[in-house]
# Entry
Amino acid sequence: MSEQVISAENLAKTYRMGEVEVHALNGVTIHVDRGEVVAIMGPSGSGKSTLMNILGCLDLPSSGDYVLDGENVSHLSEDQLAQIRNRKVGFVFQTFNLLQRTSALANVELPLRYAAPLYSEPSLEAERSGGVNGKGKERARQALISVGLGDRINHRPNELSGGQQQRVAIARALINDPAILMADEPTGNLDSKSGKEIMDLLLSLNRERGMTIIIVTHDPTIAAQTQRTIHLRDGVIEEEVK
Amino acid sequence: MSLSQQFIEAMKSLTSNKLRSSLTILGIVIGVAAVISMLAIGRGAQNSITNSINGIGTNLLYISSGNPTQNVRNPKPLTTADVAALQDPAAAPDVAAVAPVIQARTTVVADGKTTSTSVSGVTPDYAQISNESTTEGDFINQSQTTSRAAVAVIGPTTATTLFGGTSGIVGKQIRIGGTPFTVIGVLTSKGGSGFGSQDDRVLIPLTTAQTRLIKRNPSNRVDQILAQATSSETVTAAQDEISAVLRVTHKTKPGLDDFNILAQAAILDAVSSITGIMTVFLGGIAGISLLVGGIGIMNIMLVSVTERTREIGLRKALGARKIDILIQFLTESIMLSLLGGFIGILVAWGISSIIGQIAAASGTPITPSIGLDAILLATLFSSAIGLLFGLYPSNRAASLQPVEALRYE
Ligand SMILES: Nc1ncnc2c1ncn2[C@@H]1O[C@H](COP(=O)(O)OP(=O)(O)O)[C@@H](O)[C@H]1O
Ligand SMILES: [Mg+2]
# Structure
């Protein structure tokens, strides 16, 4: 295992909208050590989400090289990326993105379902955790307890407050024991009190479990709690503050 | 993800919008029910017609004068001399029995009631060849034939028309074409349908008919000769032997037969192929509604994929691959159509038994039969429809880019 969880060189991303080219990222080099918490700040449209999507393997860069947790992912296929996301990345979204039809527990279990698929490529077969068996359910329950929702396991998302929903999302992100947690404006849809609680939860995950975390935020007080802040502007890193 | 998990997830998603799922299923229910009940009714009709043809007798050959396929001038009539020649076992060893028939529509009167029905002059052999039996009394015997007795055997429908029942009729008097006859037997019902009832007729001795009722020229002329082959394997041989005998008695030139022999099996084949075509035609029309049901599934699945774009994006972000999403949506569409298929089979069963009852009530007993093959066909067909019409929406879902899908509002 390398000490660097993220090692990205010269990432660029260009969107083509008809005749116009939008350079969302313009040569971003970023390294994140294991156990680090990094904040990404920048005005709207500066490329924060684009960077997060690439670092989270949701999208491929137009150019540049990216090694995630010792694995070069720059040229992987769509399905291979899906499996990398499943095993190495935990996502926390601004809008929670929970499935409304199912309980908190089922939402947390969801990544386990894709961890041991029926139809899988042999190269990715290694180090699979089991499907959603009794053990998986217990793991999901423990994850919910660890985010302080032990008494809301069977509640549906619409029966939970925004802060509680985001906790479910964090439990879901943790279930496969990822190498990195990526949170794109995790408090953007929350009031300041629940926002602070969510931040405290994320920081405690770092402190107690050594979880590596990247947080996109507009809030300077949140950024101040992290070890490092990267300022983006127009798709380039403007400055880095330790 | 395991199969049972797929199943449970699909079930959850379908039940989360019950009305929409039910309406989609309804389309398939109607399609499958229409196809199966059409096939069942077609088959029932075919069985019913086949039964009534078989009820006439088995391994029969119908011999008549004239030849529809060859232009023969002045065909000689069939006569009792021909019958005698055919009864020679040396000349026609594969012919088991021969029965001449003359027939006319005549007014029959009894108890002040009048009916117009078919009156046939037959020989005692007719009973065996034509599968006749009596519920009361006896069939015409040889001595009645020799003595040209004024006796009659009547069909159950005729009996009911004239006497209001089928029992206690033997010994009663009827007048056929003004001549008094004594009823000596009542025929067993053949329950015939479609082809004109076999139950409304009067049979009298051939000799009596020739001399008193149905005069023909020459006097030994008969309308038709029924012959029965010794077994189903010898029908063709018997047909050839009959032809050879009649060519001699009619002194016809080779290739210019002035008679025509029709095998019962050929009629059965013709009827089966007609009802078969009818069944396929009706089934095909019903199949169109199944197709419409399939398009309904596709439509709903497309709506569902659009509605759940964010969910698809989320699942992909959490590690779902193309095939996982594809299977998720295919499972839903196949479940919709399979469920529709099963309900459709039940509905078809209901429809066909209702139609069977209506047919029975209106005097044409058709027993629609839903075969195992129809059920298998429907199951196979509806899952194929689910697969086929689910494939496009599912593939669309599976091909969504995770980032785009997550951004979808
Ligand atoms: N799918 C896309 N197609 C075209 N342009 C895009 C797309 N995604 C992002 N962009 C553009 O890239 C730039 C960076 O966007 P984004 O990374 O979402 O910014 P941020 O998250 O910092 O607000 C913006 O100018 C945005 O309009
Ligand atoms: Mg953004």
About this structure: Strands of chain A lie at 4-17, 20-33, 37-41, 63-68, 71-72, 89-92, 180-184, 212-216, 228-233, 236-241. The pocket of magnesium ion (ligand 2) is lined by residues A 48-49 (CB under 6 Å). The first strand of chain A starts at residue 4 and ends at 17.
